[in-house]
Design goal:
One of its GO terms (molecular function) is L-ascorbic acid binding. This protein is about 25% helix and about 20% strand. Helix 4 crosses helix 6. The protein is built from nine helices and 14 strands.
Length: about 350
């Protein structure tokens, strides 16, 4: 194999992969090149994930009694066996999905100088840049990110909400409200599937925390050497992922020790269980490790919403899910402390969840 050319761009500019693509489209700087064990296998023979469960939300919310029971049991099985599922007929207007995708893409296509007005400060996770980068020698993801705290109001940084594109902030507000409703409803049906009262999570979570992160993955001349996003599980209760319509398949989940690509269903949203639900269900529902890979010719866009409890609350396994056969696997802890622990560590599989384990 020919040696990989190393870019002379200094750290600080190196982490903007869109700029790198413009100036040196075939060069993969060493900072992005993964160790052999971490590199993705991009064999075309990899099985695709047509068997990832699909949940028809309208059957949960508006279906007959039989449809509700059938769909609820499918949702419970999806949470227990996969930790990932796609939701169709979710009730969010398709024109809103198109709008959020458009303003997101328009933002990433702005000149770098404009985007740098919203730069992510070191040690934070809001703004434009790369989060979870803690050292000079850490490998970087082949991805540009833009993240915002949405709810409650005190986590917002108004200086980071862009004025360009013009409709960006308004669209994010409307979209976030709709996704919030979906999360609240899904948690209701997830609770019922566990044999709990539908409002148990809503009552427990207090003033919920919601954030949005947009990821843009430019094409990469050597997708076999890099990762779009490092393997990790999410610290949230639920995560909602919208994948850009015309983008390549990039999401992969770890299932039975194998990376399985997730082929998005048009207009569906992909939901995954976060660490918080794993702890609350005492490991019955597990957060799932996932990552993103890149494509040689196609870019990829994703819009991710994280939905989590208030930073103030104490979390631990729910009494109803602990017994002789299922002894308590996690300690009680303050969710704000866990969130701080999560954002101050690099993405490394499910390592951050060790914080909560007994």
């Amino acid at each position: 194999m020919a040696p990989i050319p190393i870019s002379s761009i200094k750290v600080g500019h190196i982490d903007d992969v869109q700029e790198l693509r413009k100036t040196k489209p075939t060069i993969i700087p060493d900072r992005f090149v993964r160790d052999m064990a971490e590199r993705p296998t991009l064999a075309p023979a990899m099985p695709c994930s047509s068997d990832i469960p699909t949940i028809n939300f309208s059957k949960l919310s508006k279906g007959s009694k039989d449809e509700l029971e059938s769909e609820s049991s499918q949702l419970a099985a999806a949470c227990e066996n996969w930790g990932f599922f796609q939701v169709i007929n979710h009730g969010i207007d398709l024109s809103l999905l198109e709008s959020i995708e458009k303003v997101t893409k328009d933002f990433f296509m702005l000149p770098l100088e404009e985007k740098k007005k919203y730069a992510m400060a070191p040690g934070t996770v809001q703004g434009y840049g790369q989060a979870f980068v803690l050292s000079e020698d850490q490998k970087l993801d082949w991805c540009n990110m833009f993240a915002l705290g949405v709810e409650p109001n005190f986590i917002r940084n108004p200086m980071l909400w862009p004025t360009e594109p013009e409709k960006f902030s308004g669209t994010v507000e409307v979209y976030s409200k709709e996704v919030r409703k979906l999360c609240q409803n899904l948690l209701k049906y997830i609770a019922m599937g566990l044999g709990l009262k539908g409002d148990v999570f809503e009552k427990m979570f207090g003033e919920t925390v919601q954030a949005i992160r947009m990821n843009y993955y430019p094409p990469c001349s050597r997708p076999d050497l890099v990762l779009g996003l490092s393997p990790h599980s999410d610290g949230s209760a639920l995560t909602v992922l919208q994948q850009g319509k015309d983008t390549s398949v990039g999401l992969q989940i770890l299932k039975d020790d194998r990376w399985v690509p997730v082929k998005p269903i048009p207009n569906a949203l992909i939901i995954n269980i976060g660490d918080t639900i794993e702890v609350l269900t005492n490991g019955k529902y597990k957060s799932v490790e996932h990552r993103a890979v890149t494509h040689k010719e196609k870019d990829r866009l994703s819009i991710v919403t994280f939905y989590a409890p208030s930073y103030e609350i104490e979390l631990g396994p729910m009494e109803e899910l602990v017994d002789e056969n299922n002894p308590c696997k996690y300690r009680r802890y303050n969710h704000g402390e866990y969130s701080k622990h999560y954002v101050t560590n690099k993405l490394q599989g499910k390592k951050t969840l060790e914080f909560a384990k007994i």
